[in-house]
Amino acid sequence: MDKRVADSSKKGLGIAGRLAQSFIHSPLSPLFYFTLLGLGFMGMMFTPRQEDPQISVPMVDIFVNYPGASSQQVASMIANPLEKLMSEVKGIEHVYSASQRGSAMVTVQFIVGEDMGKSLVKLYDKLESNKDKIPPGATPPLVKPKAVDDVPIVTLTLWSKEMDDSDLRLLSLDVMQRLKAVKNTSQTFITGGRPEQIRVEVDPARLAGFNLTLDQLAHTISSANGELDAGSIESGKSSFDVYTGSFLKTASDIENLVIGTKGGSVIYVRDVADVIEGPQETKNVVSFYTGPAYQGDTSLVPDGAPA
After folding, report:
1. CB 61 within 8 Å of CB 106
2. Distance CA 10, CA 17 (A)
3. Higher-scoring residue by pLDDT: 286, 88
């Protein structure tokens, strides 16, 4: 009776069932399992591996300025021809471009494993042999090599309900200095936030009232913003370098510059212009949820309400 049940159950099994049954009852199955386990362990031990594998992925950014041209003109006269030119270089895998008013950037990515030095030589040779194709008014191409290590691996975002983007940028400068002190930190940079600047807003009527020109005002400010080497003084075995002038640091320094005289009175910059110290106009924006933020190079995104 048991034999007939076993035979009938065996007949009901498919190919997979019969194969599994043979492994279950075979005395060689444990030996097979241990052999596979040993081969897997040997493969794990002898497979080459690195904690930080060095992969060569040569990338190059090419910048070209074309002052006065619109983004469409930059794309058609600079970016697109440069893309086609770079595509002809052997070993290049991808070519990207971005155009804006007055400038273009073309990113060239070589095949993984290509040597950076040889890749740059090929790219420079191609650019040099086609210099005659640069439109009049455009600057020569500026080539900036990039590598895998130049790609940020961590991003830090600073945000606040009380501070605006300008204050966040000032705070980010302090954070960036602290990050640079961390061992093995290569490069840090800031995106977003308005940096501080000093603006001189000239009143044409007041300037004309003192019979002064805008060139005179600009020359006065630029001349005062610098130092000059006045020589050196030797005393015994010591020598001292002497410098005259100083750099302008605050709005008050600019306001108190003397432009000229009229009727025995001294004319200051503040008499013909308003000097304002504050954040620049917004050029780029970084947002965290629905508010302003500063973006740096280390990731820290806290849970919470919008900025």
Report:
1. yes
2. 9
3. 88
Q: How many helices (H) and strands (E) does the chain have?
A: 10, 13
CATH topology of domain 196-279: 3.30.2090
Residue type for 16, please? A
Cβ contact 272:203 at 8 Å: yes
- The winner for highest mean pLDDT among 2-6, 8-12, 41-45 is 41-45
- CATH superfamily of the 59-148 domain: Multidrug efflux transporter AcrB pore domain (3.30.70.1430)
Q: What is the mean pLDDT of residues 55-80?
A: 88
Instruction: Calculate the average pLDDT of the chain.
Output: 80
Backbone angle region of 306, left / alpha / beta, with phi > 0 → left and psi within -120 to 50 → alpha: beta
- The three-state secondary structure class of 146 is strand
Strand ranges in 20-91 using DSSP code E only, listed in sequence order: 59-65
Bridge partner residues of 262 (DSSP): 265
Pull the structure tokens for residue 166: 């300008």
**What is the spatial distance between Cα 156 and Cα 154, in angstroms, rounded to a whole number?**
7
- What is the DSSP code string of 162-210? SS-HHHHHHHHHHHHHHHHTSTT------BSSPPEEEEEEE-HHHHHHT
209-232 residue pLDDT tens: 888 889 988 888 888 877 666 677
Name 204's Cβ contacts closer than 8 Å, sequence gap at least 6: none
- Cβ atoms of 295 and 286 within 8 Å: the answer is yes
Q: How many Å apart are CA 176 and CA 153, to the nearest integer?
A: 15
Three-class SS of residue 291? strand
Q: What is the three-class DSSP state of 303?
A: coil
- pLDDT digit string (tens) for 161-212? 788 778 888 888 888 888 888 887 777 888 777 777 888 889 999 988 888 8
Question: Where do the domains of the chain lie?
Answer: 59-148, 157-195+282-295, 196-279
Tell me the pTM: 0.48
CA distances from 59 to 114, 253, 306 (A): 10, 45, 37
